[in-house]
Amino acid sequence: MPSSPGNKPRTRGRKRHARRGTSSTGVKGVSISARKSKVSVKDFSPGFSSSLRPGEMSNLFPDILAGRSFKRLVESIVTARRRDKQVIFMLGGHVVKTGVSPLLIDLLEADVITGVAMNGAAAIHDLEIAMWGETSEDVEEALADGVFGMTSETASFMNSAIEDAFKGTQGMGEALGKALTSARAPFGKKSLIACCYRKDVPLTVHVAIGTDVTHQHPDASGQAIGETSMRDFRLFVSLIEKIRHGVVLNVGSAVILPEVFLKALAIVRNRGTSFWPLTTANLDAIQHYRPVKNVVERPTGIGKGSVGITLTGHHELMIPLLTASILHRLKRP
């Protein structure tokens, strides 16, 4: 609608004010040579240059932010193993489901990993892969049909192995490895549990009653589950007692294993043993409270020379990069 002289918008004053802006008179410059810069070309990725040895993945990362942290973690693991120190991987269930177990088995075969800790979900997925070559059901669909977690073969195999171990002196991890080996698991070469048992690498399983689908079945014994997992906790403590100058990685466990790790450290320190310096790392698609606090910050914050690292990314990308970098770095003198 055409404006009349009486209601014409007043814009001239605003336009003049915008044009004036703020005067830069009196601003003093500084030389870039005197300025502190956080990024330098020397920290850039070298790219695929002729000087880069094929397969040395970590050299491709820039020495900046997560790239620097990644290379530091690789170097810590390599240094620890060259000094015959502990390198312990703590694994959540999603790690197995992303199909990276063969890469972790490569690290086991290369004597990089000296101990493995799993939560109950990781053990179940690994067991199903070993025995039947498949795992991970559609939770929503199965829940709607009333069959979520009701797979008979999985529960029968696992609960039976745990019950047998309870009658003896084995922990849950060793019992599952023995059971898979005795059953000649068709896909045992893809199983972390079977590999650890074959190589005599300590593997511990830490469960909370009611968290795993095998607990839903009538043959689940709380007494057997609790006792065999308790034996594994004591075994885990004995590994952490020797963690000084070693490395602990938490991969994909948001609650159980960070809490188990913290309690193990508490026992070790209560006995008067110093567990630092050490390197800890949390690798996950999302950084959760307990892994950051109990794995990365608290254990390293009290020990001089300790390092805590957080790397955020998908397991199916991070583990291949980490494995390739470690193995190729170990080949160098």
Q: How many runs of DSSP E, i.e. beta strands?
A: 6
Strand content: 5-15%
Total of DSSP H or I helical runs spanning 4+ residues? 13
Major sheet: size, sense and barrel closure? 6 strands, parallel
Radius of gyration: 27 Å
Average per-residue pLDDT, rounded, comes to: 91
Distance, first to last CA: 82 Å
Q: In the CATH scheme, what's the topology name?
A: Deoxyhypusine Synthase
Spans with pLDDT under 50 lasting ≥5 residues?
none
Order of helices and strands: HHEHHEHHHHHEHEHEHEH
Helix content: 40-55%
Strand order in the largest sheet: 3-2-1-4-5-6
CATH architecture classification: 3-Layer(aba) Sandwich
Give an overview in words.
The chain has 333 residues and is α/β, with parallel strands linked by helices. The chain has one domain (63-331): Deoxyhypusine synthase (Deoxyhypusine Synthase, 3-Layer(aba) Sandwich), CATH 3.40.910. It has helices spanning 12-20, 65-82, 93-97, 101-109, 120-132, 139-145, 152-167, 172-182, 192-199, 222-240, 256-270, 289-301, 315-331; strands spanning 87-91, 115-119, 203-206, 247-251, 279-284, 307-312. Helix 11 (256-270) links the parallel strand 4 (247-251) and strand 5 (279-284). Helix 2 (65-82) packs across helix 13 (315-331) and helix 4 packs parallel to helix 13 (315-331). The longest helix has 19 residues, at 222-240. 38% of the residues are buried.
